[in-house]
C-alpha cells in the first residue's frame, strides 16, 4: 500500500467572477521514502496541490474534493479538524518558499522550533530546547544553543530556510513537502539546501514531494516526476524517462527552454503564449493554444493518458519520438 | 470627478501618502459601502438644503421668546417641541445647521489655504526649510485640540475668526504632511521629465502633478477636517465659548438642554440627533470617497461597473 | 534604538518652545486689561499697579516670556491670580484626577475594543463584523458630551444606577471601593467611546493584516490549535500598533476631557483651564496648557519607545 494515494484531486475556488479550477483532476501515489517531483509553471496548481493534501486551503472559498485522498490509511477528506492538526508537521510536513515571511517575526527561533515538539511529542520546555539545539545542528546552523533566543530577522535567507527545514523535520514526518523551497534563495545557497534536504530525508527515510519549476533541481534529486499544467498532470514517470523521452507538448517545451550543460551553444526555444484561464472547464488539451507539436486530433478530443513505457504516462495525442535527443 | 479620478487611478499615480489617520475603514462589502456613501451624500445635501433654506423652512422664529409655550413636548404645533424660552426646537435645529456647516466650511478653507502651501514648500524645497516646517507642524500637533481651542476662543473672544483659527490650526499639520508626501514623491520623477521637457518650468510641472496626485487623500482629509470642525464647534458652544446666544447652535442648545434633561428629554435628543446625522453623513461620504479612490478597491469596482455605482 | 530615542528627545525642547510661545501669545492677545477684569472697578490704582508688577504685566512681552521660561526651568509655574495659590500646587491637585479619568476611559476602551476588534477580524464581512464596525461608526459620530447627556438621562435620571457627580468628593473617598468607582462609570464611557471606536478599527485591521501573513499559514501547517495560533502568533503581532495607539490616545485624552469634566463636575485639568480662561487667570492657563501639551508629547514618545521595544526587528 502506498504512503499517499491521491486520486482525482480537485480544488476549486469560488470567486465573484466564477469558479477557479486550480487543481482539476490530479492523481498520483507516493511510496515510503520515494522522492516525487512536481513541476510546472506558476499557476499550474503545484502549490495548491500540496496545500490541498494537507487541507491547508481555506474552505470556503476553496473546495477540496477527490475520489481518494488517503495518507497511511487515513482518509484526509473525511478527517476531523483535530485529526488533521495532529497530522500536520508530525506526519506530513511542509517547507514554504519564502522563509522570511514564513517565520513569525516576533517569536524567537527557539520558540518556533519547540512549539511542534511540545505539541506533537509532548516534550517539556527543557527537553524540547535540547532537542531544538540538536535540530539546528542537524541542519548546519553554527552556535545552535545561542541561536535559540534569536529572532528570524537576525538570520540570513539560507539560514532561515534551514530553520524551516529543521521545524519541518522536527517530528520525523513520513512525508516532507518542499514547495519551491529554494526558489527565493541565491543559487549557491540553493545547492546547499537541496543537498541538506537530500541527505536528511535519505537518513530519515522520509518521502519527499519536491515542488519546483526548476527542472535541473528536480532531475538531480527526484525519483519520479509529475508535470503539471492548468491544474492537471499532463505527464508522469521516472525522472530520467520523462526528461530524456518527453512525451507531452508541454514537457517538450520545458525541455527546449532549459539550458543544458551538454548542449552548450544550442539556442533555447521559449514557450509562446499565456497561461490558460483556470475558470474555463477543460474540453480539449489545455496546452493546445501554445503547443508547437499539436496534431489534428488535438482539436477535437481531450487526449487520454497514454503509456509511453512502464510507469511513464503522458496525456498527449502527438508522437514526439522524433524530438527525443537521447 | 469619477472619471478623472479613474484615469488617475489607472495611471497608477497614487504616490501620495496612503496614510489615512483616524482609521475609518468600514469593512463592508463594496456595494454596502457605496450605498452608505450615497445615503451619506443625500443626507448631507439635505442638511445643506435645510441650512440654506432655513428662513423658508423654519415654521417659527428661532430666537422669538414665547414663555407661554415653554417646554412643550413634540406635538402638532411644535414638531420637535419647545425649549425653556418657548422657542421652537425644529426651527432652532434648522438655523443651527447654518452655524455648524458654515464653521466647517470656513475651517476647511483655512486649513487648505495654509496647509497646502506649507506642504508644497516643504516638499519642493526640502532640506532645512522642510525640517523646520515639519518640526513646527509637529509642535502644533502636540496641542490638545480642544484645550487649545478653549484657550484661544475663551481668551480672544468668540468671533468667527478666533473660532476658525482655533479649530483650523490643529488641522493644518496633517494636510501639510499629505501634500508634502505627494510633492516629495513626484519631485523625484518629474525632475527627470522636466529636464527632458524643454523649457517647461519644473515648478509648474511639480505643482500640477502634485496637486492632481494629491487630490484624493486631500479630498478624504477634507471630510475628516469638516466633521472634526463640526464636533469641535459644538463642543465650544456647549462650553459657552463658541456661538453666543441668542444665535441658535446645536452645541449651545445642548448646554441649555442639560438643565431640563429630566423633564424635557427632547431638548437634548434633537440636537444630538442632528449632530450625529451631520457627522455620520460626512464620514460616510469620506469613506466612500476613500474607497472609490483607493487603487486596491479599484479592481473590485470595475468588476461591478454594471451595477448602479454612485460612489462619487 | 537608542539613537532614535535620543533624536526624539532632542526635538522635545524645540517643540516645547513653539508650544510655550504660542500659549504665551494667545494669552497676551486677550482683549482688555486683565487686571481690571480680575479685580473689577472698585480697586484702587495702587492695588492694580501692585498686582501688575507682581505679575510682570508692566514689562515688555518678550521679557515676560523669557522670565516665564526661566521660572519654569526653575520649577516655578507662577501663581494663580484668582486663587492666589501656586500653579504647581493646583497642578498637583488636578492632574491626578484627570489621569484617573483618562485611565478609566482607556480601560473601558481597551476592554471593549480588544474583543470587538478580534471578533470583527475573525468574522470579517459577516453580520458580526458589521455590528462591530457599525458600532465604531456611531462612536466616531457622536460628540462625547452629547453621549454623556444621553447616558446621564438613561442611567442616572431614569434608572438611578450611577451618580452624575462624585469624583473627588469626600463621600466617594470615604465609602468603599464600589462607591469610589461608581462616579467614574458614566464619564469613562462617555469619554472612552471615541477611543473604543479608534482602537477597535485599529485592532481589526491589524488582525486582518496579520492573519493574512505567511507565518500564520506556517503555524497552521504545524498543526497548532487555533487558540494558540490566535493568541501567540497573531495577537503578538497585531497588538504592537494597538499598544502604541493606546499610549498616544492616553496623552490625547487629557487634552479633550474638558467637556466631560465640565458636565460631571470633575475637578481635573480641563475644567481648571476652562475656569481659568473665563476668569482670565493667565498663569493657570499658561501653566496647565503647557503641562498638558508636554504630557501629550511625552505620551507620543512613550508610544514610539513601546513600538521599538515590542517589535524585535527594531529592537535588535
How would you describe what is shown here?
The complex is a heterotrimer of chains A (326), B (312) and C (316). Chain A is built from 11 helices and 13 strands. Chain A is of the alpha/beta class. Chain A has a single domain, classed as Rossmann fold. An 8-stranded mixed β-sheet of chain A has the order 7-8-9-3-10-11-13-12, sandwiched between helices. In chain A, strands 1, 2, 4, 5 and 6 form a 5-stranded antiparallel β-sheet that branches. Chain B has 312 residues and is mainly α. Chain B has one domain: MetI-like (MetI-like fold). In chain B, helix 4 crosses helix 7. The termini of chain B are close together. By secondary structure, chain C is mainly alpha-helical. Chain C is 79% helix and 0% strand. In chain C, helix 5 packs antiparallel against helix 6. Chains B and C meet through helix 5, helix 6, helix 9, helix 10 and helix 11 of B and helix 1, helix 6, helix 7, helix 9 and helix 11 of C.
Main traits of this protein?
heterotrimer, A: 326 residues, alpha/beta, Rossmann fold, 8-stranded mixed sheet, C: 316 residues, mainly alpha
Summarize the structure.
Chain A is α/β, with parallel strands linked by helices and 326 residues long. Chain A has eleven helices and 13 strands.
Provide the gyration radius of chain A in Å: 21 Å
- β-strand number of chain C: 0
Shape of chain C: globular
Task: Compute the number of helices of chain A.
Answer: 11
CATH class of chain A: Alpha Beta
What's the helix and strand layout?
The complex is a heterotrimer of chains A (326), B (312) and C (316).
Chain A (H helix, E strand, L loop, with lengths): L3 E12 L2 E13 L4 E5 L6 H8 L8 E4 L2 E4 L2 E2 L5 H7 L4 E4 L3 H4 L6 H13 L3 H14 L5 H4 L9 H13 L5 E5 L7 H18 L2 E6 L2 H7 L2 E6 L2 E7 H6 L4 H8 L49 E4 L2 E3 L12
Parallel strand pairs in A: 3-9, 3-10, 7-8, 8-9
Antiparallel strand pairs in A: 1-2, 1-4, 1-5, 5-6, 10-11, 11-13, 12-13
Chain B lengths: L1 H10 L18 H23 L1 H4 L31 H37 L1 H15 L3 H12 L3 H10 L2 H25 L5 H37 L11 H10 L6 H28 L1 H9 L9
Chain C lengths: L1 H27 L5 H6 L5 H10 L6 H14 L12 H36 L4 H15 L2 H15 L11 H5 L2 H35 L2 H8 L4 H31 L1 H6 L5 H10 L3 H29 L1 H4 L1
Helix pairs in contact in C: 1-14, 5-6, 5-9, 5-11, 6-9, 7-9, 9-11, 10-11, 11-14, 13-14
Amino acid at each position: 500500500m502506498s504512503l499517499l494515494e491521491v486520486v482525482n484531486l480537485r480544488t476549486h475556488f469560488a470567486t465573484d467572477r466564477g469558479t477557479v479550477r486550480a487543481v482539476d483532476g490530479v492523481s498520483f501515489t507516493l511510496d515510503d521514502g520515494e522522492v516525487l517531483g512536481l513541476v510546472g509553471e506558476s499557476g499550474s496548481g503545484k502549490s495548491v496541490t500540496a496545500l490541498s493534501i494537507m487541507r491547508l486551503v481555506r474552505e470556503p472559498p476553496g473546495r477540496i474534493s477527490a475520489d481518494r485522498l488517503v495518507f497511511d490509511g487515513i482518509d484526509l477528506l473525511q478527517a476531523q479538524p483535530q485529526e488533521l492538526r495532529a497530522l500536520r508537521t508530525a506526519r506530513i510536513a511542509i517547507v514554504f518558499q519564502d522563509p522570511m515571511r514564513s517565520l513569525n517575526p516576533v517569536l524567537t527561533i527557539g520558540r518556533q522550533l519547540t512549539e511542534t515538539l511540545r505539541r506533537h511529542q509532548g516534550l517539556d520546555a527543557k527537553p524540547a530546547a535540547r532537542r531544538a539545539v540538536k535540530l539546528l545542528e542537524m541542519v548546519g546552523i553554527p552556535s545552535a544553543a545561542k541561536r535559540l533566543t534569536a529572532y528570524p530577522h537576525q538570520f540570513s535567507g539560507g539560514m532561515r530556510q534551514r530553520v524551516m527545514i529543521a521545524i519541518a523535520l522536527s517530528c520525523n514526518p513520513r512525508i516532507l513537502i518542499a514547495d519551491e523551497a529554494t526558489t527565493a534563495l541565491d543559487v549557491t545557497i540553493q545547492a546547499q539546501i537541496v543537498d541538506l534536504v537530500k541527505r536528511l530525508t535519505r537518513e530519515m527515510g522520509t518521502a519527499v514531494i519536491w515542488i519546483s519549476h526548476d527542472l535541473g533541481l528536480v532531475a538531480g534529486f527526484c525519483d519520479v516526476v509529475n508535470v503539471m499544467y492548468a491544474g492537471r498532470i499532463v505527464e508522469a514517470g521516472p525522472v530520467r524517462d520523462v526528461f530524456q523521452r518527453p512525451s507531452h507538448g508541454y514537457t517538450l517545451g520545458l525541455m527546449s527552454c532549459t539550458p543544458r550543460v551538454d548542449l552548450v551553444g544550442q539556442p533555447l526555444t521559449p514557450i509562446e503564449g499565456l497561461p490558460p484561464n483556470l475558470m474555463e472547464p477543460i474540453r480539449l488539451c489545455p496546452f493546445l493554444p501554445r503547443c508547437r507539436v499539436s496534431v489534428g486530433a488535438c482539436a477535437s478530443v481531450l487526449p487520454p493518458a497514454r503509456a509511453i513505457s512502464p510507469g511513464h504516462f503522458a496525456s498527449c495525442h502527438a508522437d514526439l519520438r522524433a524530438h527525443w535527443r537521447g | 470627478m469619477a472619471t478623472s479620478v479613474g484615469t488617475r487611478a489607472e495611471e497608477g499615480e497614487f504616490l501620495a501618502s496612503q496614510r489615512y489617520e483616524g482609521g475609518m475603514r468600514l469593512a463592508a462589502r463594496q456595494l454596502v459601502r457605496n450605498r452608505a456613501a450615497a445615503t451619506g451624500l443625500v443626507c448631507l445635501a439635505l442638511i445643506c438644503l435645510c441650512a440654506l433654506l432655513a428662513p423658508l423652512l423654519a415654521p417659527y422664529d428661532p430666537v422669538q421668546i414665547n414663555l407661554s409655550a415653554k417646554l412643550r413636548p413634540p406635538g402638532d404645533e411644535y414638531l420637535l417641541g419647545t425649549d425653556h424660552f418657548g422657542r421652537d426646537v425644529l426651527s432652532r435645529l434648522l438655523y443651527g445647521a447654518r452655524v455648524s456647516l458654515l464653521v466647517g466650511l470656513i475651517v476647511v478653507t483655512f486649513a487648505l489655504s495654509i496647509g497646502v502651501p506649507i506642504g508644497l514648500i516643504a516638499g519642493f524645497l526640502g532640506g532645512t526649510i522642510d525640517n523646520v516646517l515639519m518640526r513646527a507642524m509637529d509642535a502644533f500637533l502636540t496641542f490638545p485640540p480642544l484645550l487649545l481651542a478653549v484657550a484661544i476662543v475663551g481668551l480672544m473672544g468668540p468671533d468667527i475668526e478666533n473660532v476658525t483659527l482655533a479649530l483650523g490650526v490643529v488641522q493644518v499639520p496633517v494636510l501639510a504632511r499629505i501634500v508634502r508626501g505627494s510633492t516629495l514623491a513626484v519631485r523625484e520623477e518629474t525632475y527627470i521629465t522636466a529636464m527632458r521637457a524643454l523649457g517647461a518650468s519644473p515648478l509648474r510641472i511639480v505643482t500640477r502633478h502634485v496637486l492632481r496626485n494629491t487630490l484624493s487623500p486631500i479630498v478624504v482629509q477634507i471630510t475628516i477636517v469638516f466633521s472634526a470642525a463640526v464636533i469641535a464647534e459644538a463642543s465650544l458652544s456647549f462650553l459657552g465659548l463658541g456661538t453666543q446666544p441668542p444665535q441658535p447652535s446645536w452645541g449651545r442648545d445642548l448646554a441649555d438642554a442639560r438643565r431640563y434633561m429630566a423633564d424635557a428629554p427632547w431638548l437634548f435628543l434633537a440636537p444630538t440627533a442632528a449632530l450625529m446625522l451631520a457627522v455620520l453623513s460626512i464620514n460616510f461620504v469620506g469613506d466612500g470617497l476613500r474607497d472609490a479612490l483607493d487603487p486596491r478597491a479599484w479592481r473590485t469596482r470595475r468588476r461591478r461597473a454594471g451595477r448602479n455605482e454612485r460612489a462619487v | 534604538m537608542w539613537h532614535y530615542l535620543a533624536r526624539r528627545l532632542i526635538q522635545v525642547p524645540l517643540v516645547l518652545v513653539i508650544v510655550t510661545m504660542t500659549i504665551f501669545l494667545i494669552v497676551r492677545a486677550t482683549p482688555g486689561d486683565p487686571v481690571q477684569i480680575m479685580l473689577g472697578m472698585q480697586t484702587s490704582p495702587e492695588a492694580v499697579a501692585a498686582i501688575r508688577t507682581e505679575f510682570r504685566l508692566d514689562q515688555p512681552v518678550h521679557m515676560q516670556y523669557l522670565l516665564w521660561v526661566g521660572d519654569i526651568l526653575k520649577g516655578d509655574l507662577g501663581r494663580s491670580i484668582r486663587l492666589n495659590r501656586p500653579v504647581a500646587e493646583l497642578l498637583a491637585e488636578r492632574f491626578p484626577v484627570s489621569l484617573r479619568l483618562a485611565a478609566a476611559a482607556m480601560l473601558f476602551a481597551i476592554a471593549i475594543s480588544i474583543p470587538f476588534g478580534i471578533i470583527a477580524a475573525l468574522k470579517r464581512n459577516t453580520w458580526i463584523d458589521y455590528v462591530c464596525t457599525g458600532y465604531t461608526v456611531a462612536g466616531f459620530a457622536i460628540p462625547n458630551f452629547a453621549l454623556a447627556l444621553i447616558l446621564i438621562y438613561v442611567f442616572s435620571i431614569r434608572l438611578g444606577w450611577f451618580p452624575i457627580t462624585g469624583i473627588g468628593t469626600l463621600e466617594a473617598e470615604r465609602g468603599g471601593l464600589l462607591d469610589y468607582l461608581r462616579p467614574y462609570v458614566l464619564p469613562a464611557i462617555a469619554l472612552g467611546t471615541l477611543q473604543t471606536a479608534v482602537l477597535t478599527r485599529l485592532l481589526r485591521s491589524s488582525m486582518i493584516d496579520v492573519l493574512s501573513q505567511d507565518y500564520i499559514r506556517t503555524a497552521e501547517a504545524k498543526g497548532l490549535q487555533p487558540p494558540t495560533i490566535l493568541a501567540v502568533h497573531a495577537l503578538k503581532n497585531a497588538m504592537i500598533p494597538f499598544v502604541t495607539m493606546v499610549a498616544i490616545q492616553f496623552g490625547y485624552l487629557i487634552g479633550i476631557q474638558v467637556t466631560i469634566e465640565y458636565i460631571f463636575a470633575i475637578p481635573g485639568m480641563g475644567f481648571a483651564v476652562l475656569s481659568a480662561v473665563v476668569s482670565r487667570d493667565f498663569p493657570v492657563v499658561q501653566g496647565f496648557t503647557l503641562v498638558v501639551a508636554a504630557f501629550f508629547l511625552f505620551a507620543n514618545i512613550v508610544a514610539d519607545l513601546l513600538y521599538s521595544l515590542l517589535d524585535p526587528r527594531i529592537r535588535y
